[in-house]
């Protein structure tokens, strides 16, 4: 089988690394890919939003299975586009159509969906420019802090936690009247702030059957102790010590099953991943958000723990046969530490030579923002490498990941020194 992955980050390198291990995979391509994917697949210099070029590549390379990594092409309707193309109606695709991708593409849609199907979530209301004054008045009586969310995709920057009414009202004005996030902010969701501890649960579904993948916890802020601005993710851990069997059963019963039943009720044939961002509040799961794809850097700790043939899982998902396969998960703990460019998440420089990668032993360095040039791997993004270690204990996995993070070198390298330490100290 010839397989094409869309994307260029650490998630896509992890996908490529896992798929390349399968005897079912004959030829593997990544568009556009990075220096890491080039080690296990053929990179195609095609942007993942260039739908026509992707369709041509699928024909040229006789692609049998397409795995869509990022959310943007899903929300923009790549699945719908490809299924309408000449000769591609039967292409196997892992990723939802545009209707299903609304779970991530519209915060308002997802909140209404949760409400319709009784899925536990924070109380919220949605406002537009026409109801701006109502929104400002609503904030006058709202508990603090309060969460302000742009409705659409905003490159991970569309969520503001406001500590005062004035700050919240300014955020709402900036989005609706000031068009801070453009079309993504044409609707604003004002949401109750939940106090608890976050984790992510990942569901793979063929629209009817489902498999729950290993859960993970990520670390979003740039600095140790969860300080500084939010980033795309500075590290992740799987499994999560506070997500015991009883709690995960609650997640399955109260979140996963009604979510899938709701999709079926709405006539959405969802084939792909559902990332469920959760808050554990007094031992109960509340949904913060859905994503229509795997998380990054969570993929870099989830996939190493999956022992099953990943290509078999992807084929079964695309063909509606997920009920016929089993999933085996390693009991080991995986920890990833993200190496980022100096200045990230603000302005940063690229083109720095990465060295010492060859010294990593029994450690996976998933490339997030790199390119290959003149025989060197160079930095090519804010998040550069996800350094993933596995071990029989959380303590040892943390130690191995941190030691490897210290070893790899490039100018301006930054990373958090405390990934996973809160879980070592965790107690209910």
From TrEMBL:
<keyword id="KW-0067">ATP-binding</keyword>
<dbReference type="GO" id="GO:0046872">
    <property type="term" value="F:metal ion binding"/>
</dbReference>
<dbReference type="GO" id="GO:0005524">
    <property type="term" value="F:ATP binding"/>
</dbReference>
<dbReference type="Pfam" id="PF01071">
    <property type="entry name" value="GARS_A"/>
</dbReference>
<dbReference type="Pfam" id="PF02843">
    <property type="entry name" value="GARS_C"/>
</dbReference>
<feature type="domain" description="ATP-grasp">
    <location>
        <begin position="111"/>
        <end position="319"/>
    </location>
</feature>
<keyword id="KW-0547">Nucleotide-binding</keyword>
<dbReference type="InterPro" id="IPR013815">
    <property type="entry name" value="ATP_grasp_subdomain_1"/>
</dbReference>
<comment type="pathway">
    <text>Purine metabolism; IMP biosynthesis via de novo pathway; N(1)-(5-phospho-D-ribosyl)glycinamide from 5-phospho-alpha-D-ribose 1-diphosphate: step 2/2.</text>
</comment>
<dbReference type="InterPro" id="IPR016185">
    <property type="entry name" value="PreATP-grasp_dom_sf"/>
</dbReference>
<keyword id="KW-0436">Ligase</keyword>
<dbReference type="GO" id="GO:0006189">
    <property type="term" value="P:'de novo' IMP biosynthetic process"/>
</dbReference>
<dbReference type="Pfam" id="PF02844">
    <property type="entry name" value="GARS_N"/>
</dbReference>
<dbReference type="GO" id="GO:0004637">
    <property type="term" value="F:phosphoribosylamine-glycine ligase activity"/>
</dbReference>
<dbReference type="InterPro" id="IPR037123">
    <property type="entry name" value="PRibGlycinamide_synth_C_sf"/>
</dbReference>
<dbReference type="InterPro" id="IPR020561">
    <property type="entry name" value="PRibGlycinamid_synth_ATP-grasp"/>
</dbReference>
<dbReference type="InterPro" id="IPR011054">
    <property type="entry name" value="Rudment_hybrid_motif"/>
</dbReference>
<keyword id="KW-0658">Purine biosynthesis</keyword>
<dbReference type="InterPro" id="IPR020562">
    <property type="entry name" value="PRibGlycinamide_synth_N"/>
</dbReference>
<dbReference type="InterPro" id="IPR011761">
    <property type="entry name" value="ATP-grasp"/>
</dbReference>
<dbReference type="InterPro" id="IPR020560">
    <property type="entry name" value="PRibGlycinamide_synth_C-dom"/>
</dbReference>
<dbReference type="InterPro" id="IPR000115">
    <property type="entry name" value="PRibGlycinamide_synth"/>
</dbReference>
<protein>
    <recommendedName>
        <fullName>Phosphoribosylamine--glycine ligase</fullName>
        <ecNumber>6.3.4.13</ecNumber>
    </recommendedName>
</protein>
<dbReference type="GO" id="GO:0009113">
    <property type="term" value="P:purine nucleobase biosynthetic process"/>
</dbReference>
<comment type="similarity">
    <text>Belongs to the GARS family.</text>
</comment>
């Amino acid at each position: 089988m010839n397989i094409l992955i869309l994307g260029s980050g650490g998630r896509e390198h992890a996908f490529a690394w896992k798929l390349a291990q399968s005897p079912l995979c004959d030829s593997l391509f990544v568009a556009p890919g990075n220096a890491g994917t080039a080690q296990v697949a053929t990179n195609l210099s095609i942007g993942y939003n260039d739908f026509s070029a992707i369709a041509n590549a699928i024909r040229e390379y006789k692609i049998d299975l397409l795995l869509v990594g990022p959310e943007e092409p899903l929300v923009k309707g790549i699945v719908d586009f490809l299924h309408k193309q000449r000769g591609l109606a039967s292409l196997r695709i892992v990723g939802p159509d545009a209707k299903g991708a609304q779970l991530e593409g519209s915060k308002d849609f997802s909140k209404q969906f949760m409400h319709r199907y009784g899925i536990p979530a924070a109380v919220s209301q949605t406002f537009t420019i026409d109801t701006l004054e109502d929104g400002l008045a609503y904030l006058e009586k709202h508990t603090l802090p309060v969460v302000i969310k742009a409705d659409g995709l905003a490159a991970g920057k569309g969520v503001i936690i406001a500590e005062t009414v004035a700050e919240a009202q300014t955020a709402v004005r900036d989005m609706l009247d000031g068009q801070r996030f453009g079309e993504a902010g044409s609707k604003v969701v004002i949401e109750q702030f939940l106090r608890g501890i976050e984790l992510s649960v990942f569901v793979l579904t063929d629209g009817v059957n489902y498999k729950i993948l290993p859960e993970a916890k990520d670390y979003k802020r740039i600095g140790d102790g969860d300080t500084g601005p939010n980033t795309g993710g500075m590290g992740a851990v799987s499994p999560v010590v506070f997500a015991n069997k009883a709690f995960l059963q609650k997640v399955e019963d109260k979140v996963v099953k009604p979510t899938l039943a709701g999709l079926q009720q709405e006539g959405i044939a969802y084939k792909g991943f559902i990332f469920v961002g959760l808050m554990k509040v007094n031992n109960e799961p509340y949904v913060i958000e859905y994503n229509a794809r795997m998380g990054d850097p969570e993929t870099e700790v989830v996939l190493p723990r999956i022992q099953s043939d990943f290509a078999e899982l992807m084929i079964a998902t695309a063909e509606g046969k997920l009920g016929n396969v089993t999933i085996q998960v390693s009991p080991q703990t995986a920890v990833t530490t993200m190496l980022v460019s100096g200045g990230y998440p603000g302005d940063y420089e690229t083109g720095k030579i990465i060295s010492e990668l060859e010294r990593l032993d029994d450690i996976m360095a998933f490339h997030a923002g790199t390119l290959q040039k003149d025989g060197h791997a160079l930095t090519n993004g804010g998040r550069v490498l996800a350094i993933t270690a596995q071990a029989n204990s959380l303590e040892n996995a943390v130690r191995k990941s941190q030691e490897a993070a210290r070893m790899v070198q490039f100018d301006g390298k930054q990373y958090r020194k405390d990934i996973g330490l809160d879980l070592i100290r965790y107690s209910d």
